[in-house]
Amino acid sequence: MYLTKEEERTYDGEHGWANQKSMEILVRLGELFQAKRLIPISSAHVSGVSYKTIGDAPIEYLEALANDHAQVKVNATLNPQSLDHEYLGKKYGARLRDKQLIILRQFERMGFTQTLTCTPYYLEKQKRNAHLAWAESSAVVYSNSVLGAWTNREGGPSALAAAIIGKTPDYGIHKAENRQPKVLVKVVKRLQDETEFGALGAHLGRILGDRIPTIRGLDGATKDDLKQLGAALASTGMVNMFYRGNESHSKNLDIEERIVLGAEDIKKTAQELCTASTEKPDLVIIGCPHCSLNEIKQVANLIGEKKVKTETELWVCTSPCVKQRAKKYVKKIERSGGHVLEGVCTVVSWTERLGVKTIMTNSAKTAHYAPTLSKADAIIATKEKCLQTALRR
Ligand code: F3S
Question: What is the four-CA torsion angle of 44, 49, 54, 58, rounded to 10 degrees?
Fold first, then answer.
């Protein structure tokens, strides 16, 4: 891989150990994928922030980088953590809270903004065609497909290295030729709600491999619907982007396969995501990916004056920044007995320690991961249905 003189100096250690290590990671990755060079990025988003997911070993590496004065060179943001300090931190206890804080502290020392969200795109606009190094798969799909920015699906370490160097290897969907759709998907059922968009994503993720689809029949989809589609697509498979297409858009493409999906396919996938045999969840979760301001407003309006049942928990997850913007809706949700958790991903939290056995959610991604990562059965339902279940009549 070609390196500029300055990059070579970093690689040789002239700019310190942390920069050298980071450069080594990028060069190894680039060589693995036959990248010819590094390209500048405008933003890096790092996953692997939750203590539950990373455990103790990487903390030492983060500390070593920070001790060596590693500093991010671009706008650098963080994925959600395992707990919030107001609510779950108290439930899980001091040891887990302190470990989580140590991790955040190291990122802070390196200059990361404590965004703690999988929807960094609500906090800062990304320019079309901007090159990014993002590691959260749902944000990667959203960024490539909805925002028009360009990013591979980074791992936590490569996104961290890219943040420190300010560059990423030029391969994968940083290159226009690799962003061509290969599969034309026609959805003949009009999708009604976010769970159907999620089910479509989960179904496509399973059958597409890493082939990019053009999906026809998404008319009327909101950005929140597309967020659910993309998150599910990335969780069941390796697809990192999709196009929304019509006949003219798809005419001259080099399409390998055409797929028609109808109501039965969507229904079957949604049923497969429901693993619970009960209709009574212990925990209702809305906010995977993290809620937009509009979604929080919808939740607050749907709650109205009602109260959450004593036997059920209601968690609405969002970023600290969006929670701040949504203050009046947050108050309403909290008055009902629900909890608006900031900066938390419930999938990488310890819900099993709270005795949660059944999770109800409007997110196909949470439903997909619940049985393995949360050791819980899942029920997938619209946010209206989720709230009906969580609230007293
Ligand atoms: Fe976000 Fe966690 Fe869902 S990172 S997309 S809330 S699994």
Answer: 70
Phi and psi at 243, nearest 5°, equal -110, 150
SS3 107: helix
Whole-number Å distance, alpha carbon 290 to ligand 1 midpoint, is: 7
- Which residue, among 293, 287, 325, 377, has the nearest Cα to 80 in the 3D structure? 287
Residue 13 contacts residue 21 (beta carbons within 8 Å):
no
Q: Is the peptide bond before 289 cis (omega within 30 degrees of 0)?
A: yes
pTM of the model: 0.96
Cα 109 to Cα 34, 70, 223: the distances in Å are 33, 8, 34
Residue nearest to atom 7 of ligand 1 (CA): 347
Residue ID of nearest Cα to ligand 1 atom 2: 345
Say if ligand 1 is within 6 A of residue 141 CB: no
Instruction: Report the alpha-carbon distance of residue 58 to residue 51 in Å, rounded.
Output: 10
Are 214 and 181 in contact by the 8 Å Cβ rule? The answer is: yes
d(CA 47, ligand 1 centre) in Å: 10
Helix (H/G/I), strand (E/B), else coil: 155: coil
- What is the whole-number distance in angstroms between the Cα of residue 337 and the centre of ligand 1? 23
Three-class DSSP category at 69: coil
Q: What was the pLDDT predicted at 33? A: 98
Q: pLDDT tens across 317-346, in order?
A: 999 999 999 999 999 999 999 999 999 999
285 alpha carbon to ligand 1 midpoint, in Å? 11
CB 134 within 8 A of CB 45: yes
Q: Kindly report the CA angle at 223 between 286 and 306, in degrees rounded to 5?
A: 35
Q: Quick check: 365 and 287 in contact, CB under 8 A?
A: no
What's the gap in Å between 233 CA and the centre of ligand 1? 13
Amino acid at 303: I
Cα(first)–Cα(last) distance of the chain, in Å? 64
Q: Is 138 in the pocket of ligand 1 (CB under 6 A)?
A: yes
